[in-house]
Design brief:
mainly alpha
Length: 190
């Protein structure tokens, strides 16, 4: 029995029947979404675009009828933008901190932040810390989406359940950083 195509596979097939052209169309759609979020001041346009594409793939996996994929994606993007703006207003600047193991951080990072981040990460249960770091260690674009889907499957979770679990872990790290009176900006790109 042939396995059912994933939502991501369905998305590529809907963009174009030829795999090479479908990948190019996917990249074009992702760039358009990144610009949409960037122009509207989203703190992390790449993450918001990836979230939009994940939701679109999920709708296609649920076999929701989508007549115009780019238009449908932009409708989802408007909802994601609204959620991001609400979340930003609720949680402030720490909401958009990207987590990485201190040795993985590119560029200069204040020493106090590194001294504070290490114990905050170490305070998490080992499996939680490993999950959090693996979640943010994945590449960009389609690679990030597929990597996070693989991570979710490996842990027996849906992508949304994985995202929720990571957010709870991130909230614990952020609370720890607040207790230490460290308010970092962005640690990594992505």
């Amino acid at each position: 029995m042939k396995p059912q195509p994933s939502g991501f596979d369905r998305l590529l097939a809907r963009l174009d029947g030829d795999p090479g052209r479908a990948a190019a169309e996917f990249s074009r759609l992702r760039r358009t979404l990144c610009k949409f979020f960037d122009w509207r001041g989203a703190p992390s346009p790449d993450d918001a675009a990836d979230e939009t594409l994940e939701r679109l793939a999920g709708k296609l996996e649920e076999k929701v009828e989508v007549l115009d994929v780019p238009a449908f994606a932009h409708g989802i993007a408007r909802l994601v933008l609204h959620e991001v703006q609400r979340s930003e207003a609720r949680h402030g600047s720490l909401e958009h901190m990207e987590l990485a193991a201190p040795e993985q951080v590119d560029g200069p990072v204040p020493e106090i932040l590194l001294r504070s981040l290490r114990p905050c990460l170490e305070a998490l249960p080992r499996d939680g810390r490993d999950l959090l770091l693996a979640y943010y260690a994945v590449g960009d674009g389609a690679e990030k989406i597929e990597g996070r889907h693989r991570l979710a499957r490996r842990h027996g979770l849906s992508p949304n359940a994985l995202r929720s679990r990571v957010q709870r872990l991130r909230d614990r790290v952020e609370a720890c950083l607040r207790e230490r009176h460290v308010f970092p900006g962005r640690l990594t790109q992505g």
